[in-house]
Amino acid sequence: MSYAEFNPVVKKVNLKADGKKEIVLEISDTGLDGKLDTLAKMIGCTVQCAIESQVVNFNITLNAQTNEPLKTYKVDNKGIVSEVEPEVEQLEANLGLPKEKVKTVEEKQEIELAVVDEFISSGLAPQFETEFAYDIPQVIKRKNDGETYMKIANELNISSGTIVELVDQYRAKVAPLAEKWKEWKDSQDEKTEARAEAKKEEEEELDLSVPKEVSEEKSEESDDSTEDGAA
Predict the structure, then answer these.
(1) So where are the chain's domains?
(2) Element containing residue 131 per DSSP (H, E)
(3) Between vectors from CA 103 to CA 102 and to CA 106, what angle results, nearest 5°?
(4) pTM to 2 decimals?
(5) Which of 11, 34, 157, 174 could lock onto 24 through a cystine, CB 3.0 to 4.6 A?
């Protein structure tokens, strides 16, 4: 059986005159290194193909006047992401005042799928049990471990199309949190690298100072031996 795996960009989907559809994929210069012969053997053959976007698209709601997101997030020292209550809304809540109606606009954003799934696999992503009837983080984990959506859907007694739709919705919902978590994780990694570098420099300084001290000790011992011999 011939097999080839690669990450193309979907460029076009064309409807041909005979009613068939033509999908045009674009691969980078090195994306098919060592795979062209395998693909050549598949020409004219029926193949099984599953395509999954490597980016997650999501919307954020902005204040139309300030162009700032209505929802912002913070991360604690354990990596748990939580929503920050806006100061105005907090003040209104404390005073028992009705919420001010703010004009909003939606802005489309995207984030790498790998970042979102890393956040989910960390166990820190919320499940949103009240919005999703199934354990979607577990579904994503099983899919990333090699199981098919069809197998998982059969076990849950739903269609594979439904499970894919739920996964897409869940990823889009946690995407803003994943983005903030990634920023926190990167900053933690930088701090760890800085500490490791500082420790390395400190050890190198100690290593450089040890031979000098040892040399001085040996010199003193040599002088003592010379004096003893002279006596």
Answers:
(1) 1-51, 55-189
(2) none
(3) 120
(4) 0.74
(5) 11
